[in-house]
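quick one before i forget lol
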Amino acid sequence: MPINILMPALSPTMTEGTLSRWLVNEGDTVNSGDVLAEIETDKATMEVEAVEEGTIAKILVPGGTEGVAVNQTIAVLLEEDEDASALENFSSETEASAAKAEPKQEEAASAASTAEKTPPSTPPSTPTAPAPVSASGDRIFASPLARRMASQESLELSALKGSGPHGRIVKADILSALEQGIGKAGASTETSAAAPAKAASAASGPNARELADMLGMEYELEPLSSMRRVIANRLSESKQTVPHFYLSVDCEMDKLLAFRKELNASGDVKISVNDFVIRAAALALKKVPAANASFSDEGILSYKNADISVAVATPSGLITPIIKAAQNKGLGVISGEMKDLAGRARDGKLKPEEYQGGTFSISNLGMFGIKDFSAIINPPQGCILAVGAGEQRPVVKDGALAIATVMTCTLSVDHRVVDGAVGAEYMAAFKALIQEPLSMLL
């Protein structure tokens, strides 16, 4: 019997992804373990492997398709002893599956979709909108979740272009329309396409693209990647809903730099300043465990391990691979893990568990010569440490002017979970470790 190849869930929170490209064609013979396709999530590109032997009979979702729901049928595999005739009574069911598959969280909405076709014998408790149609009277195909979101946001589905299978409108299309201000009910498609995404931007004037068009400015429009869209949404939410406050300290680094030089001269492992920062941040969390926490509606989550997320720049945006239980790892182990994680992060090859679930973040822009800055908290974490460049500055020691290498570090704190005194205690512990690096070996 033909076998459905489904869109995999690459992380516990994944509901949809982008099918970047197929590495096989229809008619190709594959073995168990062969790589079939590349799937792009919000953070990385992962490979999909065949779990059965057979022949690729039909590819239902083409490469480059966004918003493909988890568990949606993306292709059909014929077993070794089957030929194309086995698809005669199978293809219609498969294509129907591809057209209606959605994440599990949408199952309730699917029931409402069924009610559109079969009126219930008793009135439903929640009115169900009729299936949308275009101006020509043709039915518009949209997922139950997309229809519900469109109704809540007063969007006209007829004004949107679907990116799902067979032009089906999916969740990603609704989110894109909201960001671009397209398809608002009561406005023409042409007017909606030119409207700002939010009323606030309308009040403040034209957005960047509108202004560029008005002034005849030349530009290239690069569509938002899944990763960039998630970064924009999460950091906007963080800045708007998390009450940030900031604590800065200046750390003298001369002892650390001398110790690092000695270590690197005597061993095969090359330790970076960032490795020391990760180690110090983790040990400071061990000394001040109240700073290793997150806020939730159910209560404060206090973590047992210092899982340090480290911001790494990639062509698609920032990603934060994690050094897990960093308080228990030496500088050499941290250095090796960080080099491996950073390299695979830039190549989009991290596993979801390698960048999800950290308890504390570090963003280091010192290598770019940035003196100091304040970072935005990475939800649901309670703190993020911004690390600036080490530079020679005049300092006063024992009443006399001297020169020292100084690094400014700023802690952004979620005031719902970490109070000012706890944050100050943490920064004092961190500074002491940086200024006395031998204490990191204890």
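fyi DSSP finds twelve helices and 18 strands in the chain.
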